[in-house]
Amino acid sequence: MKRIAVMTSGGDSPGMNAAIRAVVRYGIKSGLEVYGIKRGYAGLLDEDIEPMTFASVGGIMEKGGTILRTSRCPEFVRKETRAEAAKILKKHGIEGLVVIGGEGSLHGAMFLEEEQKVPVVGLPGTIDNDIAMTDMSIGVDTCLNTVVDAIQKLKDTASSHERAFIVEVMGRSSGYIATVSGLVTGAEAVIIPEVPVNYEELANKLLEERERGKINCIVVVAEGAASAYTVARHLEHRIGYETRITILGHIQRGGSPTAFDRLLASRMGVAAVDALLRGESGVMTALQGGKIVTVKLDEVLKEKKRLDMELVKLAGMLS
Amino acid sequence: MKRIAVMTSGGDSPGMNAAIRAVVRYGIKSGLEVYGIKRGYAGLLDEDIEPMTFASVGGIMEKGGTILRTSRCPEFVRKETRAEAAKILKKHGIEGLVVIGGEGSLHGAMFLEEEQKVPVVGLPGTIDNDIAMTDMSIGVDTCLNTVVDAIQKLKDTASSHERAFIVEVMGRSSGYIATVSGLVTGAEAVIIPEVPVNYEELANKLLEERERGKINCIVVVAEGAASAYTVARHLEHRIGYETRITILGHIQRGGSPTAFDRLLASRMGVAAVDALLRGESGVMTALQGGKIVTVKLDEVLKEKKRLDMELVKLAGMLS
Amino acid sequence: MKRIAVMTSGGDSPGMNAAIRAVVRYGIKSGLEVYGIKRGYAGLLDEDIEPMTFASVGGIMEKGGTILRTSRCPEFVRKETRAEAAKILKKHGIEGLVVIGGEGSLHGAMFLEEEQKVPVVGLPGTIDNDIAMTDMSIGVDTCLNTVVDAIQKLKDTASSHERAFIVEVMGRSSGYIATVSGLVTGAEAVIIPEVPVNYEELANKLLEERERGKINCIVVVAEGAASAYTVARHLEHRIGYETRITILGHIQRGGSPTAFDRLLASRMGVAAVDALLRGESGVMTALQGGKIVTVKLDEVLKEKKRLDMELVKLAGMLS
Amino acid sequence: MKRIAVMTSGGDSPGMNAAIRAVVRYGIKSGLEVYGIKRGYAGLLDEDIEPMTFASVGGIMEKGGTILRTSRCPEFVRKETRAEAAKILKKHGIEGLVVIGGEGSLHGAMFLEEEQKVPVVGLPGTIDNDIAMTDMSIGVDTCLNTVVDAIQKLKDTASSHERAFIVEVMGRSSGYIATVSGLVTGAEAVIIPEVPVNYEELANKLLEERERGKINCIVVVAEGAASAYTVARHLEHRIGYETRITILGHIQRGGSPTAFDRLLASRMGVAAVDALLRGESGVMTALQGGKIVTVKLDEVLKEKKRLDMELVKLAGMLS
Q: What is the superkingdom listed in this entry's lineage (chains A, B, C, D) (predicted)?
């Protein structure tokens, strides 16, 4: 193996740059040429590919987003498109590909490997923590801290007033961000896709707590469960006091990555290059019990990452 | 004068605690007894009043919100209610009142002084910067930095994607927060109550910038001008790419106050006590050209604070 | 078991309050009475003990330090002192003790259990990450992020100038904080107790990098390896340009805990109560491969936590 | 006037990039060509000069440091060197020069104008706030907030222990940073160049406060008054408990600039171009009473900026 490439694909997540840096620098130190593919699969199809150097990834680790940029590429679901992509990689002499992204992007990587025999290693990069077989994905820890900071600011003002605050956070199919951020900020309630919500019960709980003298009232809702507006509408007439809404949106994807995400991304980037050099393919790097391992992409993508329900219980118990 | 009281009223803003601390500690050092009134005018009517000590305001300066809590008190528009409030103050031997809050709260303070002859000094506390005759109100600087941090995080992800991001910030009648935060983050556009928006023109501007290679696209909108959803709806079909929404909400009121707000609040707290001791009443402390002065409350409340249109021009020119 | 107590001891670390909160709230929900012992073993000997309630731990999770305060208690090395402590616990009807602290504090806990048969569970709380058999201690993640933020600020100015910056961080016997913070900020060199430093070689490395065009130069040194001044003295005449020094000191112990530390502390607090209820004693809660388990205190304290030398290698390879 | 240049010189300060951006973009919009001179006067002498574009200053406003880099240039004290510099500017067709920096850099600018008749406008850029005739310099507000954050972290741990913490901050000839940061964090004492320190008295004050139950003890010292080690040595034996030291160093120069500094720098950058276009020279932009004005460089440099002793008094009174 003489030449590999790295790309980021799908939604960006903080730490992707640290992963790119690790792939490039460790690749070069391992005797490889490393290329960067811009804008994910779309850029690959446009042959938007350029050589990376030790210097070209200097000073990027601390930045949110991805210097390679990213995009969604719906046409990549077609087999012909993937064949075209494989041809382009071959044309550029690229013998191994590192793909950093979420579920959709890893699916693309899996097919590229299975059908087109392109040696591929995936890195789980998503703030949702919805990728199976890895304890954490790159970006989750930073996202959590961003959400926690935001809720903490709400608490300042919440304890000055008699109001309920509804905070909508990311998580289309996973309640991880909502659950953990609610747990570690002592939010009064968490609404997530994994657990059906009963607004009657929730309103009663809030009213009871209010009666016991609690004046803060913060409800964290994962976008996949309901919108903040829906929650507000359901609660307001039941609890009899005003609600206020915060929708964090893409702020949750940004920010300088935490130490945890930079370390995770660096270790995974190195592990991806090592895997390619060992001849592994169709795998994803994963954090399991503190160690970086590789797992089969097809197994990862068959499985649904389940939320640890102990966390949900804990959140309820301690708030 | 032997005994004074301090309260916070209306929406809270970061720095109110620093102001309370300064009133209490400087009051005590000046030989006064200082009382705290809880929950603004509502707490005053409930006689929720307690003596403050040097120690009771220890460790509060760095906290958002207000340890005295706050509330809106619609019944305070009635003259009889204010007469009742004056009676309660008299009953508790309170000869001077410091009110920290926004326009509505200062109106209450003015009437209390004019009708009931209660010696009153107001402090401008609001994140909107919509109080006339003072360059800055307590809380504005912290709010600005919170908004800037949030937009900066959006920029990370915005430059990875091809999307427009709409950020809704506070400012019911004033575009100050939107304008300055847009200016200092290089946002592509700012929509404020002071300037009518032309969506056609705005969309064209965004499209032109995109053509010139700019991939970031952030629009900051003051809640008083439009909702983020309205802006998104107007732009999406015109610009032809997706938009994403962030509504910061009450996060903008929270957070540990900046050095500027702590200093401003401390100086104003001291100035308020000095004013009462000098026999001034019906005044507000104000920052004018770097100095803390007192201005007549009725003049403050007659005037509408105007946004410096140079800032709007500057934002347009530099982005 | 009807009544337990919780204390923090030794150096404080961010997240201790989240652990206290979890012990108190989960203890109460489990039907126990929970007492707080102030100022560690010293406060225990002074019978500075008070009942805790659900409300008394409200709003503390986000705070650095420890609401129970802490102290070092050198006289606790004497057996008679520990016997006295056990008597006091008995007198107050305390049948189980949760001790949150570092190595010294856990030693005290172990002896209290072995000699005096007090049921004890320890929680590893230290920023140094020097406690064996647990992947992370409470406070390490927050400390790391504080150090990373500081180094990142240095990089801003470092890249504007031609200077070397020496940053002294905590770690008396462990180079964990120095190594990981150096790794994730791309520091040019890391000096730690585990690896002997050769200033001649180090200076040559820095000179070579300078020649290759690198203008940043940041060296992170663990206090246990050398002082920043020593490093500066050794480097300055060899590299021929000026150095500047930063000593972070106890800033590294402070700050609002990260999401990770709050979660870890909450889980460990719950696990400690569960262990006591199960009749376990002389154990410490530990994070092993993502799970919270209990391990024998005497085994923990016999073993020296070793720094993962892969991290050291990684830091060298990627910078 | 067809072509101007901008440079940063001396110690960097956060906000310099925002100033560069404003000069470049507003210059271009005003019909000028704008060049950037690298590494201050040293780069000018090396003809390290390049054209700047609207795009070349994109995404820099939020960064600490200066993209033009900076240096000290001792040989610029010689008249012949300055004549050489003027010749180089002429050779490159540069008809106006904007210099962003502290006192030394502005001196260079003044001589360049007086002797060599180069049209020059200075911008005050320094974290020390030691430049006369302007209320604030670019970088002061960011530095203050960095120091305040650091001290706030110390307070977390300080209130858990019985120790005194000495924090050394920047300020060679000015106690501004030390005074204001001490004031807004409630530090127990501040040691500054403007006021002689009496360690005996200081120790007594700390002991008294300790007796009254205060457990925090933080002393902020400006580097120009004493080193943290000196203060510790003087205090330790007098107060009888341990001290711990923090030396923030160049961290104080870094960090993403605050909203205030970005706004100040943007306004000053625009004002500098306007001044050149109006034919003004030998002036500095200054913030006076909320307005940006120009003042004569020779008057600025004759005067010593005095610390407002009201702030010192306030700090003493409120802590």
A: Bacteria
